[in-house]
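Hi everyone, sorry if this is the wrong subforum. Our group has a chain we'd like a structural model of before ordering constructs, and none of us has done structure prediction before. Sequence below.
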Amino acid sequence: MTIDEKVNDDYTLTFITQENFEKHVNELIDKYYEILSDYDLKRFNSNLIDPIKLSIDKYLLDRTWKEIIDTEINRQRAKTITNALGDFHQNIFKYIDRCEVPKTGFDIIYTNEAGQKIYVELKNKHNTMNSKSAEQTYRMMHNHIKENPNDKCFLVEVIAQQSRNIVWSVKLDNEPCYDERIRRVSIDEFYKIVTGEENAFYKFCVQLPKTIKKLLANRKDNVKGTNTVITELQNRGGNLQKAIFFLAFANYCGFTTVEDQIDDLLNGNHH
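Answer:
Right subforum, don't worry. Here is the predicted structure as tokens:
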């Protein structure tokens, strides 16, 4: 049976109750609905958009302003969805025996039957850390192991290059550094350790779409939101490029003193 194959709504996971799994998936659906809800100008510019990038994209990619703004909205939503998925992968361990999800510090702490603790940093994809970030994470784990020599530290990756449970080696101060207790582990191997089931993560992947379909069938709310960004920008004077630049640069030098000339400047009509 493949993951995409239509199956009956029977619940097969043994390491998390159906009630808790459905609660957890429902929380993700709620987050998706929130992300895909109405998009207004305040939300669009909540983290300050980059007018220069948008302007370059418009002309080099030969797009309309509507297409550029829609692409930026989709990019913002995708980034928020990625964060929501990270929370989803992390917080499921709240419902799994001998696991905890601290509010600060490491993402997950697992205590095995012998009492040994594994402290986990969870990453969605193997290439999401640059060398500086990897070094900082490794130093944190190295310091923890020095103070707690019976513990282990794992860098767990949901999307790893392959299934693995290997020693994580990095360079600190240009010197190779490794410790058997600090490991790089794919999510399937971590599920196997935590649950004691060889194919626990595969079973999770099979169950997830079935549960989503079931939960969506029982919901009455609508995911589709409205987008008022273009209208709100046009209401600021009609020139979209001017309005977009003023979202970020309204108080910058020149923009406050030559506002009456900005239309010509942005359109290349230099006097």
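For your construct planning: Confidence is low (pLDDT under 50) at residues 1-8. The chain has two domains: 18-92+222-266, 98-199.
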